């Protein structure tokens, strides 16, 4: 069994999927209403933040996704008492008895998620040392952690890379630092926030990421007693404080999940009301959705995304940091673009290898060329990065059923959509990886009228 399939199996077990393969009969529009809970990219970080408090934190709208289970286990082996459950959407996290975990306990969680790297600052503050296992997450490029480690060193941490993970100590405590990120990395910005809030003195972070999930993490930290100001030009100031308390927070909705179901509605010619989705965090997506020919109604309770009839139009997209077009949105949308009249281009500028899912779409009949060194384009708005790729999608094409294996979270969701659009039957294996970030996606497919069953 290859390691991707192993990762998928573990994720499937964590959320209780019946098997790791789904058989889909395509050709039916998805119609109905689904709930979008808290964002994977905020909830997991807020859970880590609970380690910094002296009292219990309560987090609401928690999605039942495998990454939440991984972070829960990592917190529990460090002595955090967790009550409630991802299934019910509410977690209480009591960090009173934080303690060192054994290496066997840590090893068992190796390679399952990217979140463990964010335990560094909180564990250094609580215990004076941290051991971080090998990271998991989507395999969409090298995904180095040099910005994280450089930031931790700037705070005074001593970093020792071992074959089994990273050992970090802070013999003289952590003190505020002046840090400038080479690129506005989401994870490295969170690393600085989670470390700087309890470091001695002031921290200045230049070229920070300002994604909505980061703003919501700042809101969580402010509720805990932190002093953080976000200045213009991507600069964040943090005044370290001596202690923090627990928080009570309803997580920001998952805009990536909402965008994925929106793309599914468009690609299948259907209509999906995403309860909990909000306009303000999705404006860039909504503009592109409208340009392609999709329609949406923004309501108090959520957003309805639908195909209003007529032809879909091609578009040129450049993925970018917020407020640009998010890299996690392009994969499901590309399936809709296979149904548009004409040639679309997607420039992927954030990760150097994020079109792995495209081969399967081509096998299903899509006309997509991947340019591994990117594409020159005089109309580009995002500065060209050294390692970027582009996909050129020409449509419309009739997709037909095929055997697919999920390569990563968003690519996997795009495979599901492609199978739902295709004529005939598809089998999609390794769907456990989709459960890393899409809560109850099987129940939601059922609610939306998809025709599918789990393979034995
Ligand atoms: C759990 C989580 O929140 N995941 C999100 C987070 O990932 P993550 O936080 O890992 O993504 P980053 O923003 O850090 O990565 C952006 C770019 O910076 C590079 N980089 C990053 C760190 C580092 O130390 N060195 C370095 O070179 C990466 O290789 C990548 O090319 O933001 C990404 C960009 O919005 C999203 O696609 C992911 O869904
Ligand atoms: C890349 C993603 O997640 P992670 O950083 O957890 O791998 C994603 O959510 O698409």
Query: What is the typical, i.e. mean, pLDDT?
Result: 96
CATH superfamily of the largest domain: Enolpyruvate transferase domain
Side-by-side strand order of the widest sheet:
21-22-1-23
Tell me what portion of residues adopts beta-strand conformation: 15-25%
Structural category is: alpha+beta
Query: CATH first level of the largest domain: which class?
Result: Alpha Beta
Number of strands: 23
Number of helices: 14
Cα gyration radius (Å): 22 Å
- Just name the CATH architecture of the largest domain: Alpha-beta prism
Description:
By secondary structure, this protein is α+β, with helices and mostly antiparallel strands. The protein folds into two domains: 3-36 and 253-454, Enolpyruvate transferase domain (UDP-n-acetylglucosamine1-carboxyvinyl-transferase, Chain), CATH 3.65.10.10; 40-250, Alpha-beta prism (UDP-n-acetylglucosamine1-carboxyvinyl-transferase, Chain), CATH 3.65.10. The chain is 30% helix and 24% strand. The chain is built from 14 helices and 23 strands. The chain has helices at 3-15, 40-49, 66-77, 103-107, 120-127, 146-154, 186-196, 212-224, 255-268, 283-292, 330-337, 358-363, 409-421, 441-447, and strands at residues 21-25, 31-35, 57-60, 81-85, 90-94, 129-133, 158-162, 165-169, 178-180, 202-206, 227-231, 235-239, 248-250, 271-275, 295-298, 302-306, 316-318, 342-348, 367-371, 389-395, 403-405, 425-429, 451-454. The strands form six sheets. Strands 21-22-1-23 form a four-stranded mixed beta sheet, with helices on one face. A four-stranded mixed beta sheet has the order 2-14-16-15. Strand 15 and strand 16 form a beta hairpin. Helix 2 packs parallel to helix 3, helix 2 (40-49) runs parallel beside helix 8 and helix 9 packs parallel to helix 11. Bound molecules: uridine-diphosphate-N-acetylglucosamine and phosphoenolpyruvate. Residues 41, 114, 141, 143-148, 183, 185-188, 209, 326-328, 350-351 line the site of uridine-diphosphate-N-acetylglucosamine. Uridine-diphosphate-N-acetylglucosamine binds at residues 41, 114, 141, 143-148, 183, 185-188, 209, 326-328, 350-351. It is found in: Cytoplasm.
